[in-house]
């Protein structure tokens, strides 16, 4: 019996690493509130932390161990009730420049954190998490569609040589004015031939004959449904970019979306990224921009602040070249001056629009307009009840973040600079890469949710796992003596390896995941049972103890490998076609199978070699 020295080194290395990185899972997290800037580049310093501590002290909410991390302040509190109260107080006192989010602070010892060890995340059914309820602004979705339709109508009438005085967009309709009824009737024929989306009504006004176009009820429902579905898709993409495991994103009613984030997450970052309706518009700079000194803007142009809200005003042409909806990919990086930039790739249609617009504009300037829909939160005290009421007023913030001279005809790939800090460039790229929201969304509700299965059910599930583990261990000791003890050690090592790998990859453990671990333990024991029974058979057939050990491992290996491989294939299929709890089960099962192959064969054989390999054996304790 010989066993390579390098395998002992590998086993010892895996044992030490697994033990160290599984330890953090034994330390529970505690409730905390996290304060971060409303924008990615906002800085949080000791002044903010001190102010927050004073605010909570005035509200009789005890805090401890205030700290900084990833440009955010974290204040720990004693209970979940204090956590909710602290969030409400800080949100009201600090204002809209800061995001106050619920979070869980780790209690892992510093020496474990120093080596990158972190506890395994728990799913929504085991720990609970953060619950967001967002409302889609349907009026804004309609306004955006009407804006696009207005430009299309203007272009169609011109292409068909129909005379008209003007096209203007109202809140829920489009009005086209004419000089005479003949032009109006010609326009009706053209518009009905082009689209059936509108109900067209001929009216008379003091300025002459007009057409009033309103979307049909069927088309309005399509627009609303598209806005919700597109926002659902975009939210899922953004959550994937954030790396949130097993998140739940689903619609509720006609215009609301529910987002549940399980386990320990940076809820401030999640809230900032999920709720932002960031979009880009590429427009040509007006020739009158350099001479504009304020006052009424010339026809066909719009005025926007440059770089900052309090920066100089710049005139842009009203017509957009392309918007962020045409962005196929976006990556942040650095230019030749080591300044942050965002490299953008447009889709085919966007590239053609960009090329057409810049072909005759070489030498002119193009600007990048950053548009963000926000909510202004204010608090008003009811004079009758004395209660503080929160009110939210939506508003749009538009700033020019880049202005540059067009050196050549642009196509599908180009870059924008002047995007602020590296963090802001990275977040802008994330938002564009994940897709644009079809309409703004506003947070209606944010709260922590408890375990969905109930603590009693969770305790029973964990208890059943512990009882099963103990019974399996006793079974192995009673039936296989020393070999049973060795198999039990391998089981503990297998469990530590599973916890370590899951914490490394950020997988969240749910109750189905626990079922996957239990099944893995059963399969690992099954492998050791096959090996032990094979050794017994070899001894009955007259083999010496050492020959029986070698033959038992060698001949059982093929059977163990085949059975684990087929189960691993099933785990991959479940992960590919499943969702939520099914994926949680598949992940833990796949990790457990790979770990059990190592512990049930390599680890146990190495220990058996240490026990029996260096001495004469007359009898095996099996």
Automatic annotation (TrEMBL):
Record-annotated membrane-spanning stretches: 461-482, 489-507, 513-535, 556-578, 584-608
GO molecular function, one term: protein-transporting ATPase activity
All residue ranges annotated as the SecDF P1 head subdomain domain in the record: 304-439
Membrane topology according to the record: Multi-pass membrane protein
Span of domain SecD export protein N-terminal TM: 2-102
InterPro entries, sorted: Acrflvin-R (IPR001036), SecD (IPR005791), SecD-TM (IPR027398), SecD/SecF_arch_bac (IPR022813), SecD/SecF_CS (IPR022646), SecD_1st (IPR048631), SecD_SecF_C (IPR048634), SecD_SecF_C_bact (IPR055344)
GO CC field: plasma membrane
Boundaries of every Protein export membrane protein SecD/SecF C-terminal domain copy: 444-611
Keywords in alphabetical order: Cell membrane, Membrane, Protein transport, Translocation, Transmembrane, Transmembrane helix, Transport
Domain Protein translocase subunit SecDF P1 as annotated: residue spans: 228-286
Compartments, as annotated in UniProt: Cell membrane
Biological processes, Gene Ontology terms: intracellular protein transmembrane transport; protein targeting; protein transport by the Sec complex
Similarity comment: Belongs to the SecD/SecF family. SecD subfamily.
Summary of subunit composition and partner proteins: Forms a complex with SecF. Part of the essential Sec protein translocation apparatus which comprises SecA, SecYEG and auxiliary proteins SecDF-YajC and YidC.
Role this protein plays: Part of the Sec protein translocase complex. Interacts with the SecYEG preprotein conducting channel. SecDF uses the proton motive force (PMF) to complete protein translocation after the ATP-dependent function of SecA.
UniProt-recorded name of the protein: Protein translocase subunit SecD
């Amino acid at each position: 019996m010989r066993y390579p020295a390098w395998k002992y080194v590998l086993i010892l290395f895996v044992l030490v690493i697994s033990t160290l990185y599984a330890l953090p899972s034994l330390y529970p997290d505690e409730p905390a509130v996290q304060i971060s800037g409303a924008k990615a580049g906002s800085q949080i310093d000791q002044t903010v932390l001190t102010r927050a501590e004073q605010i909570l002290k005035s509200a009789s909410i005890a805090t401890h161990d205030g700290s900084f991390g990833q440009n955010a302040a974290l204040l720990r509190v004693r209970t979940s009730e204090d956590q909710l109260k602290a969030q409400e107080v800080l949100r009201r006192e600090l204002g809209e420049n800061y995001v106050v989010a619920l979070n869980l602070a780790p209690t892992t010892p510093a020496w474990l954190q120093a080596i990158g060890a972190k506890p395994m995340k728990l799913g929504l059914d085991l720990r609970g998490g953060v619950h967001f309820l967002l409302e889609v602004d349907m009026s804004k979705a309609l306004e955006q569609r009407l804006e696009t339709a207005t430009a299309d109508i203007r272009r169609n009438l011109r292409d068909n040589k129909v005379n008209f005085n003007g096209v203007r967009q109202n809140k829920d309709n489009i009005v086209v004015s004419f000089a005479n009824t003949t032009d109006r009737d010609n326009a009706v024929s053209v518009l009905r031939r082009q689209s059936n989306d509108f109900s067209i009504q001929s009216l008379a006004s003091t300025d002459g004959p007009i057409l009033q176009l309103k979307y049909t009820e069927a088309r309005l429902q399509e627009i609303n449904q598209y806005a919700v579905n597109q926002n659902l898709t975009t939210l899922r993409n953004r959550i994937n970019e954030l790396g949130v495991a097993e998140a739940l994103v689903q619609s509720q009613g006609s215009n609301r979306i529910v987002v549940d984030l399980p386990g320990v997450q940076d809820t401030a970052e999640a809230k900032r990224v999920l709720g932002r309706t960031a979009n880009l518009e590429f427009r040509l700079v007006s020739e009158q921009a350099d001479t504009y000194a304020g006052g009424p803007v010339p026809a066909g142009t719009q005025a926007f602040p440059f770089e900052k809200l309090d920066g100089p005003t710049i005139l842009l042409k009203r017509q957009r070249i392309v918007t962020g909806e045409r962005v196929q990919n976006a990556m942040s990086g650095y230019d030749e001056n080591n300044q942050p930039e965002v490299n953008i790739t447009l889709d085919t249609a966007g590239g053609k629009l960009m090329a057409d617009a810049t072909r005759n504009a070489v030498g002119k300037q193009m600007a990048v307009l950053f548009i963000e829909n926000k909510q202004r939160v204010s608090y008003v005290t009811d004079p009758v009840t004395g209660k503080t009421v929160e009110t939210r007023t939506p508003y749009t913030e538009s700033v020019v973040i880049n202005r540059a001279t067009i050196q050549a005809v642009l196509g599908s790939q180009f870059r924008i600079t002047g995007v602020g800090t590296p963090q802001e460039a990275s977040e802008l790229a994330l938002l564009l890469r994940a897709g644009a929201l079809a309409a703004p969304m506003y947070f209606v509700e944010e709260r922590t949710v408890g375990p969905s299965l109930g603590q009693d059910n969770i305790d029973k599930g964990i208890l059943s796992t512990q009882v099963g583990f103990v019974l399996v261990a006793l079974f192995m000791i009673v039936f296989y003596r020393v070999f049973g003890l060795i198999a039990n050690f391998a089981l503990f090592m297998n469990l530590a390896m599973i916890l370590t790998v899951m914490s490394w990859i950020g997988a969240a453990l749910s109750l189905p995941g626990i079922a996957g671990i239990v099944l893995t333990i059963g399969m690992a024991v099954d492998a050791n049972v096959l090996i032990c029974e094979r050794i017994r058979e070899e001894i009955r057939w007259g083999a010496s103890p050492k020959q029986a050990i070698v033959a038992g491992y060698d001949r059982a290996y093929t059977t163990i490998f085949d059975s684990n491989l087929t189960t691993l294939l099933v785990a991959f299929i479940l992960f590919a076609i499943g969702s939520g709890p099914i994926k949680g089960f598949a992940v833990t099962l796949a990790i457990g199978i790979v770990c059990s192959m190592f512990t049930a064969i390599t680890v146990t054989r190495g220990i058996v070699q240490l026990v029996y390999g260096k001495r004469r054996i007359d009898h095996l304790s099996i």
